[in-house]
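note to self: the first set is below, dont mix up w the second
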Amino acid sequence: MLNPADVAVSDLMTRTPITAPPTTSIDAIAELMTQHHISCIPIVDDARRPTGIVTKLDLIECRAAGRTTAREIMMPHAMTLPATATLATAASLMSHEGFHHVLIVDAERALLGVVSTFDIARWVAHQA
């Protein structure tokens, strides 16, 4: 079994994830999640730099509050790591902060991919 400290997050991340700008409606965000069977949408600027993240839980919580755009419901300052970070680092960050997704960025902070708790669980299952 490989040591998680020896595995780069870039080896198991979802590459080129579905993203949206902050002005995207929550209905469009919900449709993207349903259509692509995903549980989060990174919110990015024109340079693909993350400005936040919207999860399924955010959608559930916002419906009753009358919010209408990603900007209004996203968690700003989403957790990010460089592509060279290890699986152990990502898992530790997720566990400590209570998040299910970490955005993977390049040196200019442009989005490269997403690592989720599901990705980590799948990796562990394949190691067994």
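second set (the one i keep forgetting abt)
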Amino acid sequence: MVGGLLALAAPALELVLARRVVVRSLMQWVGFGMILWAIATFDTDTAFPGPWAALPVFGAALVIAAGPTAPRFTPMYVGGIRPVQMVGDISYSIYLWHFPLFVLAPFVVGRELGSAERLLLIVISIGLAWLTSRYIEQPARSRLLNNFSLPKFFGVMAATIALFGLVALPLDRISGVLVAADRAVLAERAQLSCFGAGA
């Protein structure tokens, strides 16, 4: 929602901030500071996702609103370095890959992960994200969707939703049976360390 509002406000922001280099620089420093503060201080006791999510979200909004052009003394200069740009380009793919890897890996190895294993999973997440971005997402955007008419696009979208609905219904019933059968096991596992959002 914040991103959408920011996109709508972009033309007005560009007019207001056009020649205000100091203001843009300050926005970047404050925005990056908010993001770094969240990285450094958030832990399992932080209500996240929750109200504290506003800190990195509005920090990111400030950085984006300030725009890409900035003097060398602002953090945006670091954002222009090629490896950082590459990670930014595939960041959504990284987001999609890292979570299942980090959630499932402790169950696969049967224990909590060490620092080296977590770093390895980050590297694997980035590698898988680059592959899927390069060979699935980008071709889909450039070839598949470009030739779509609006009715055809919405037709495919409706068919996809219907397909997922048909698949989800039996899975929901199966999961209900499994939950009833394994309630004791699930209750025991619930006492273990959290490998999801809490981690």
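remember for set 2: The mean pLDDT is 81.
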